[in-house]
Amino acid sequence: MQYFRDILYSVSATNALDMLIIACLIYFILKWFRGTRAWQILATLGGLGVFYLASSRLGLVLTSVLFQYLSAAIIIVLVIVFQPEIREMLERASPIRYLSGGRPHVVQPDVIEETVKAVVEMTRLRMGALIVFQRSDRLRNILLKGREFDGLVSAETLLMIFQKGSPLHDGAVLIKDDRIKAASCILPLSSEEGLSSRYGTRHRAAVGLTEHSDALCVVVSEERGEVSIVTGREITNYRKKTDFHLALERELVSVGNSREGSSAGLKGLFLANARLKLLAMCSAVALWLVFVGPQSSEVGITVPIQYTNPPPGMEITGKWMDRIDVRARGSEASLANLKPESIRAVVDLSGAVTGLNFFRISSKNLQVPPGVTIAQIRPSDLHLRIEATAGVKFKVVPSVTGVIPEKARIVVNPVEVQVKGLENDLKQVQSVVTEPVKVSELLEKGPRKVPVSVQPEGLRIDWMDPMQVTVSIERSDP
């Protein structure tokens, strides 16, 4: 339980940001390799990594050492096996791609209308077709162009290209910026093994292109007369013209800055590929726990001692400690804002007796913030002498300088004060004396408040703060 508490208190904002960045990186890699043969290899390597960590924790020395020696070779093998995927992934992650690609082009409604007309006619004639809409990603390095073509998008043009007797029907048509830019293009075939056998070369080529870009592909099956939209490696079939038309508008027409579009984008940010995002986040947390974990630090600090529940009629005498030195242990986040007043040593005097008392200070006596523990206490032993106290009333004797006029007298208010202290010290006191005051000042300015003092040290006057009395001259009537 303490280990989990240390983890909780050690997660600072910096650590959370660190794990979030790694989770995004893992999610990007998993999403890129999902559905490919590399996905199975990654799953196998992940299992081997878990096995290696478990063997290290369990003290399986031979197994751990063997995995350590093989780790360098495994990295080299990974680079060789995943060379095409790594190259493509780096190209997708390149900032130049985002800077040069710009925002997705908004396809005009008439282009979508002409495409829908052509596709409907193709399904009726059982004519196969593959139409590619370029969006943000450039397709120059992915798509092998067959023949340059620069023409308006119309149903007649598309039907002419894909008719069986046309020399351009074998391959894909590329539509960019609302124009047909190329025809008879060759697309990279998908290597996904989970793709259904009912899908032919056109569907596999469309999936292969969407594995490497954000392009949208429209596939018309020659055998079944079926219409499909392929985007993000997903194939969606449509039987109704209206559904197909709405799907194209949803994918190719910008939603703008409407509230509906913003809420849908936010919802997709958190809910799209939720399982994959959860797996990436759990993997990032696991890596942080293994390689970083709740690293603890120590700091020395001087803290005050608080004495509680003193026995009535007793007090500490002689030299006594008001501070001790401790070494606090915790995560960097827990110790970052630690101050002397954050920790307090509490000593309970309820069981004290008259004379010399011994107290042992342990971590139980210390009040510490959550996530902080005490590693060392110096000194840990306290020696306190406690004696009985009492209160005695003494007459206040004014100390004046100068000649008191005839028929006048010095008056002190109050006449008596109560002095509290140790019984042995009180036996040495006979009276309480004020500080010297001049008679001329009393005659000229009237009554004055004058401090009083009591000896020996350690005695105090009760119910007066500060310790002052009023001294005045009172004349007798003639």
Short description:
Helix content is 39%, strand content 29%. It has 478 residues and is α+β, with helices and mostly antiparallel strands. Mean pLDDT is 79; it is low at 255-265.
Summarize the structure in words.
- There is one protein chain.
- Strands 9, 12, 15, 17, 18, 19, 21, 22 and 23 form a nine-stranded mixed beta sheet that branches.
- 39% of the residues lie in helices and 29% in strands.
- The protein starts with a helix and ends with a strand.
- The longest helix is centred in the N-terminal third of the chain and has 21 residues, at 13-33.
- The model is unreliable at 255-265 (pLDDT under 50).
- It folds into four domains: 12-99 and 269-291, no CATH class; 109-253, YojJ-like (1, CATH 3.40.1700.10; 296-387, RNA Polymerase Alpha Subunit, Chain A, domain 2; 398-475, RNA Polymerase Alpha Subunit, Chain A, domain 2 (Beta Complex), CATH 2.170.120.
- α7 packs antiparallel against α10.
- It has 478 residues and is α+β, with helices and mostly antiparallel strands.
Count up the domains: 4
What percentage of the residues does DSSP assign to strands (E)?
25-35%
CATH class of the largest domain: Alpha Beta
Number of strands: 23
Q: What would the CATH topology of the largest domain be?
A: YojJ-like (1
Q: Mean pLDDT, rounded to whole units? A: 79
- List segments where confidence is low: pLDDT < 50 over at least 5 consecutive residues: 255-265
Q: Please state the second-level CATH architecture of the largest domain.
A: 3-Layer(aba) Sandwich
